[in-house]
Amino acid sequence: MTSKNNGEIVDLSGWLHKKRDHGNLLFLDLRDNYGTTQCIIEKDQPFFKELEKMQLESVLKINGLVSQRSKETINRELKTGEIEVIIKSYEVLGTCKELPIPVFSDQEYSEEIRLKYRFLDLRRKKIHSNILLRSKVISFIRDEMNKLGFLEFQTPILTSSSPEGARDFIVPSRLNPGKFYALPQAPQQFKQLIMVSGFDKYFQIAPCFRDEDARADRSPGEFYQLDLEMSFVEQEDVFEVVEKLLNKVFKKFTDKKFLYEKFPRISFKNAMLKYATDKPDLRNPLEIHDLTSVFKRDDVKFEIFKRLVKSGSIVRAIVTKNTSDKPRSFFDNFDKWAKSEGASGLAYFSFEKNKNIEAKGPVGKLFSPESLNEIMKITGANIGDSIFFSCDKETNVLQLMAPARDKIGEELNLIDKNVFAFCWIVDYPMYETDKNTGKIKFSHNPFSMPQGNEKDIDFKNPLNIKAYQYDIVCNGIELSSGAIRNHKPELMYKLFEIAGYKKSEVDEKFKGMINALSFGAPPHGGIAPGIDRIVMLLAGEKNIREVTLFPMNQNAQDLMMNAPSEIHDKQLKELNILIKKK
Fold it and tell me: What is the DSSP letter of 79?
């Protein structure tokens, strides 16, 4: 309602959001899905005391007169802020018990109480707006995908278990005793089968089920993704569609700018070298440099690092510009933080110049002017800059330097929170070495196409094989993985053999896929950006729970519906299942 409705008699239904008693006047804020309207009643009305005692969040139907507010009482923050409703009569449509959490406040409460009373939590302004945003984003994506010529199909929810990826959720079959379905971790095989079936552009807002532990950007149990696949395409064709879509989505729903209109392509190798992660936040200008070679010099006397480098460790460093005048506590705090993360610390010094280049800091005297010159050449550092560095086995250094880069960037206010920085991470290795067994295994998606001409692929050195696999990242959050698929059965057998699979195992575990590819499969590829993470970025939230209607807690429990729960012996008997109790 607006001032155009002034003088009208209206019926208004909603939740009693707030009450303000001003003696002779009682102000009631009535809230529905679209906003809040101020209603008033004078003290001499017969039902004044009833409304005065009414429990907040009761559902009311109010009949009243729309009245223009005076200029000084207009509330510009409300769509209905120019008017109020003078109450003539009311009806209670739904009573409310004492509230476990208030709805009129966005104050933070414990996860347990918020999820147990999620229906109340969802009435609160911020999270209610987030869920409305989610609905609008999904509708917009559907419209845009249709405009791009994609067709929406629904793939099965009950399917076979997958030997790759995360743990499956298993569903027993009543009609096939002793056998089980699995909920799909993703519609991966089905969307490839859709391409083999002759449909060349598919998409789906797909539910995915993975028995994984929760993280801030990952819900335990289930999530949704924009699943898409295209036939007769190469990697750049997929990039073009996704960039076009994400540009439109993010510009439609936020005013934030893009750091790069054309998303940069960064090889996996360079990402690990420059950012120590394949999920870099490019809003942060800091880069990581390899200083391992410096610690092989005779004029560097940092003996601890030199011994580690001789035994196979590496040294990586971060330069901060114009920080030599920072107090020692600034540097020591990062060293203490590194130790709290389980590392031995972060060594540091600042570059100064008197007669020669010098290093100011606890370990500065261990470097000659010539070695400092080489460090400056490698890193691009100048006089007045500082450097933090770590030495350890490669895995440990990467685990430390990625969050160190983020932390230093935050501390120096280098990260612009008003931009989105997208990038593609490309050229993933096809294989990696299993840390526990030492055997070769797939590093990413086993159905991906290796790069290069098949005749020239170096199958004898599988760790050198790169795949047409790619991730899209925004502000340090991985939105999706994708790949150009391997549509050649004989090549697939060869690649699986390297990872330890016999031909018979491939035929058994991927029966539908390998059989379909044998009947004329087109080149195809796709990707599946996470809907939850897209909305989380658009809403400016740090936890995916804030953009999910009914999330589970950290232990994958639904506190509101009491799931998972035990089932009756009768149901177990029908499913031919016997539970052995400890």
Answer: T
State how far the Cα of 111 lies from the Cα of 106, in Å rounded to an integer. 14
AA letter at 530: G
Asked if 312 contacts 280 with a C-beta cutoff of 8 angstroms, the reply is no
Report the distance separating Cα 307 and Cα 37, nearest Å: 72
Name residue 396's amino acid: N
Phi–psi pair at 209, nearest 5 degrees: -130, 120
What are the φ/ψ torsions at residue 580 (nearest 5 degrees)?
Answer: -90, 115
Please report which confidence band the pLDDT of residue 580 belongs to, taking 50, 70 and 90 as the band edges: confident
Structure tokens belonging to residue 34: 């679209």
The residue assigned the tokens 């994609």 is 150
Tokens matching residue 511: 């029966």
Give the span between the Cα atoms of 190 and 156, in whole angstroms.
8
DSSP H or E stretch at residue 193: helix 188-196
Helix (H, G, I), strand (E, B) or coil at 100: coil
The pLDDT of residue 415 is above 90: yes
Share of the chain above pLDDT 70, in %: 99
Comparing CA positions, the residue from 65, 83, 66 lying closest to residue 74 is: 83
Q: Kindly state the percentage of the chain with pLDDT values over 90.
A: 88
Cα–Cα distance measured from residue 285 to residue 318, given in angstroms and rounded to the nearest whole number: 11
Strand partners, 67: 84
Tokens of 456: 């020239």
pLDDT tier at 163, thresholds 50, 70, 90:
low
For 165: left if phi > 0, alpha if psi spans -120 to 50, otherwise beta; the answer is: left
Question: What is the per-residue DSSP string for 369-408?
Answer: HHHHHHHHHHH---TT-EEEEEEE-HHHHHHHHHHHHHHH
CA torsion angle for 109, 113, 115, 116 (degrees, to 10)? -160
Write the secondary structure of 400-466 as one string of H (helix), E (strand) and C (coil): HHHHHHHHHHHHCCCCCCCEECEEEEECCECEEECCCCCCEEECCCCCECECCCHHHCCCCCHHHCE
pTM of the full predicted structure? 0.91
Q: Kindly report whether the peptide bond that precedes residue 446 is cis, defined as omega within 30 degrees of 0.
A: no
pLDDT range class, residue 215, cuts 50, 70, 90: confident
User: Cα separations (Å) of 372 from 246, 351, 360, 401, 413?
Assistant: 44, 8, 11, 21, 27
Burial of 482 by CB count in 10 Å (0-12 exposed, 13-18 middle, 19+ buried)?
A: buried
- The pairing of strands 25-32 and 9-21 is antiparallel
- Classify burial at 333, counting beta carbons within 10 Å of its beta carbon; exposed 0-12, middle 13-18, buried 19 or more: middle
Token pair listed for 236? 């750049």
Burial class of residue 340 in the structure, from the number of CB atoms within 10 Å of its CB (0-12 exposed, 13-18 middle, 19+ buried): exposed
Nearest alpha carbon to residue 479 among 240, 154, 168, 242: 242
All residues at 6 or more sequence positions from 187 whose CB lies less than 8 Å from its CB, including other chains: 155, 204, 206, 208, 227
Pairing of strands 265-267, 422-426: parallel
